[in-house]
């Protein structure tokens, strides 16, 4: 029974629309006659006028059915639909007027009559639809709708208001707008007034309060509102005691398909990434696709935060084969399952492998002969590597050498080393081992460049990735769920941050640049290190405060921030360049380059072997001595306040 009810309901609605439009057409004829000649209309018989009106209404009904106008939903009317309704009605009016005038049936016919008639019937039809839309499709006038203020204006606000108008029982009621453009103040968008600019948000909230229309929530509809501007908006919202949310993705606001219920607007909380104030980097996706498409690609550490995102973006570019190498079974299973669902057409192989196992890695490379190698596997957590320095040397330094040597032996086009800003003037074993890995790859690239052939080695250095495993953001989230406190190591601690999508996109862009070598000055084409432009560093305590506020709480009032002291190996401030590394501007958004410090391949290779041999034997002091000799800027220790047990960030 349910199956037959829906078509009947649609048919009934179509008949009702047709009846209403036919009635409007009948009324339009005497109105047009009255406007054209009031005296002439008074002299005509009522029966004659009714007969003509009926004839015209019948003609219009046939035309409307032919144009399928009764099937056009009044709720989802667009500009094209309005033109369609008005055009069909106007055409009928003009043709009817010409026929009546041409037959001489209508005395005192004037050429103005068909034009007036077209205007009258169009006005009646559109007014009926507009009145219905205003009565039923208002922006959240439903009972219990939450009053909201839209921040951003423009296309985002337009889409939000349109999506809201489509809901049967809206949960939000828009009471005002603030935009980027001061000239928009006082104007109306879908009947909603622009109360001022985003920077005047506090004034707009006070003005709405005076009118008795205070919002309970601010909805950010413009992606240009980020960083400091978003923080200013959060300050104003906190002072007013209201929350802030973000409009869903544009794809979530798409119109419903035929027969489907309109999708409801599901607002999202403000993400910590929105506060980074980082402009979107224009990346050459076509160049990346040309680099990856049809090539065999191998990713080490494919289950980690960076490795997994590399695998996602590479799979989307159409490689001939994607080999996922990872020593964690669960992490490997997770990314392999995800790619099976999102990129099933990409041939891939999930391999459990430890980059410290030379024979395993050489056999893997010999079998699959990857053309591009992305080396993301590493031990990255500073305090843990500090407590286990031998493991850091074996994984970060020796493991990188094993992967790099395997890439050379199989004739790979390029290998990309994912490095860290902690490799610059390192105070931790993790940073020093990553610097040793950088030096080895630089030396190999110098040799490849000198020989005029062989594998190119790309080193990309960047800072902290928001939300990555073991990073500060997940730690703060867990602490917030427990009610606090949020633990910070030092009030002056600051770090560079990037989103994982942004970091991986720039890694691929750097690989394109290195393989082509076109945008790189001649002096830096051998061994130069790419450094991602991460904007301004962020104080960790500021990050903690932002996360507390995003949770709808007040820092130091609702949630305590507790300082724990620097941990072993930590620095207060990270650096992107060593003092002896000359900065080179590539003229590419988001990418910088550090001119190489000359290193001898044989010396670096021998040092890695000596340090690894000592580490395997458990002689950590000897291993660290070799590391310090090759990385003379390595000053181990995080300061007098360091403790081995303090949690925090």
CATH architecture field of the largest domain: 3-Layer(aba) Sandwich
What is the chains' assembly state? single chain
**Which outline best applies?**
elongated
Under CATH, the topology of the largest domain can be stated as Rossmann fold
- Summing up helix and strand content along with how strands pair, one would put the structural category as alpha/beta
**CATH H-tier superfamily of the largest domain:** NAD(P)-binding Rossmann-like Domain
Question: What is the terminal separation in angstroms?
Answer: 62 Å
DSSP summary: helix tally: 20
Gyration radius (Cα, Å) is 34 Å
Fraction of helical residues: 40-55%
Number of extended strands = 22
The neighbouring-strand order within the major sheet is 10-9-8-11-12-13-18-22-21
Query: Strand content of the residues, in percent?
Result: 5-15%
Uncertain spans, ≥5 residues at pLDDT below 50? 1-10, 251-262, 638-649
Number of domains: 3
Mean pLDDT: 79
For the biggest sheet, the summary is: 9 strands, mixed
- CATH class (first level) name of the largest domain: Alpha Beta
